[in-house]
Amino acid sequence: MAIFLHHSQPWMQKSIAESEARMEQRMDQNVQAVNKRLDAFELQVLKRPALTIDLSSFQAELASLRANVDAIFSTPTIEPQAAPTALADDTVLDALFSGTIKEETCAYTYQR
């Protein structure tokens, strides 16, 4: 058995060395493939046109939005409207000319 191991040892060492060399070669190929893909991705990113923003239209849009927000949050000005007095006037006139109102009530009303 010792003789067999003695003769097979160089063969095993050679086989291990060849296997390691193949693994290194495969690793190098894999690294190169990854690098190619990264380079291709980088080129695609660099080829894309840069986004351009028209500053004047952006400022105009922003001003419009501010105006809308100001309009929403501004306090509404409510102008007081005169209450309709026609009904009250008719009621008073009807009471005065119908004769159902007492003179003391009229005097009291007008003394105020």
Molecular structure report:
This is Integrase core domain containing protein. The protein is mostly helical and 112 residues long. The protein has a domain at 1-47. It is 78% helix and 0% strand. The protein has 4 helices and no strands. It has helices at residues 2-47, 55-73, 86-98, 103-111.
**Proportion of helical residues:** over 70%
Mean pLDDT: 77
Low-confidence stretches: none
**Strand portion, in percent?**
under 5%
C-alpha Rg (nearest Å):
51 Å
Secondary structure: number of strands: 0
Q: Largest sheet, described in full?
A: none
Number of helices: 4
- Measured between the Cα atoms of the first and last residue, the distance is 138 Å
Structural class: mainly alpha
Shape: rod-shaped
H/E element order: HHHH
Organism: Solanum commersonii (Commerson's wild potato)
Protein name: Integrase core domain containing protein
What structural keywords apply?
single chain, 112 residues, mainly alpha, 78% helix
Itemize the secondary structure elements and their pairings.
Layout: H1 2-47, H2 55-73, H3 86-98, H4 103-111
Summarize this, please?
This is Integrase core domain containing protein. With 112 residues, the protein is an all-alpha fold.
